[in-house]
């Protein structure tokens, strides 16, 4: 007990993103490392990956089906495009912005707890929306309550991947995020069917039942176990590291996410209404969101596998795809005049935006220490949420002012191009990753704690 000790910051797998200052003997350190080695990239890690896939399928499927509801709400409530767009923009914005709260729950409890709580809250929001009598009520029930619940699911679903995978982390992240593309493909036609069969109110009740399944898959996020002594120590000290906020690359990535989220929100909320304005049927317009999902699903997986190759630079792929989708969005008005053109635009939109979404989490891991992953993702998701919040309503205001959707999609293209340009500056700042390293200290502090921060 009083022999030589290592002062080490250990990542607690039951609280995946906490760093716990503890004094460990050499045998305890060896035991913890062996435990990590047995759990990483194998065994239950694959179950966690599938559970993350399903959770993200639910989150994206619900949040990005807002465009289907947007067409219905415009007709039912008769509000302006700008006012109605707040419903769809808020569910995306809140689900992303709640990442800070989900990071706290993940740090304080576990990924499992955060996901289960999020599933319950999101279900409550969907059920409450069935009784809405105004757009303002939907802004609260669907946009805020359901959105907050989905946000409590998204971050821990990704964090769990980060802690169960190391060598195959990019592939596992890409596979899990492919679930988001599958959700975008499946949910819009399913919701449209529910609306046609049971009315939009009945669809919310049915979707509440679907959403509750998040809790089941969240329960599969089994925390990795530490030794009994370490589990006791976590009750005494729990520190969340915010030194990553000095990381210039992370700040640039956050603003990049703000811009592309603005462009993405415009596409998902207004594309169906834009198609209807060009004489498409409501069913055909809702199918455009599914086409986005097809492109999303395929290219999320391809991007995840490609980014695992050492010759592929994730930052270059991220910036390049955003630039491409920006140019495509500027050409959108030329494609929206025919049904084939609309399908083609939706497919390209889904393909190139998927690459950016897949690469955000791996880029965060590159920029900050793993111990800061949940908190850093929370900040990035907060900025993403702000983008979702302002994009669709601003595009709706442009339509209300000018009477043309073309200006809304010009705005979307500019947002994507700005996102691409901002992140291109990241390599200029070199390596700024903050890491926690082992150190040996004979005369340790009373709490046996020492932290060594190195800027590489």
Query: Averaged pLDDT, please?
Result: 76
Measured as a percent range, the helix fraction is over 70%
Radius of gyration: 22 Å
Strand order of the largest sheet: 2-1-4
What is the general shape? globular
Unreliable parts? 1-26, 28-33, 226-240, 433-456
Tally of helical segments: 17
Classify the beta-strand content into a percent band: under 5%
Please report the distance between the alpha carbons of the first and last residues.
34 Å
Largest sheet: 3 strands, antiparallel
Number of strands: 5
Class inferred from helices and paired strands:
mainly alpha
Note the quaternary state here.
single chain
* SSE topology string: EEHHHHHHHHHHHHHHHHHEEE
Chain-wise SSE layout:
Blueprint: E1 6-11, E2 19-24, H1 26-39, H2 44-63, H3 66-77, H4 81-97, H5 99-108, H6 111-129, H7 135-164, H8 169-211, H9 213-218, H10 228-233, H11 248-277, H12 282-307, H13 314-330, H14 332-335, H15 339-367, H16 373-402, H17 406-423, E3 434-437, E4 439-440, E5 452-455
Antiparallel strand pairs: 1-2, 1-4, 3-5
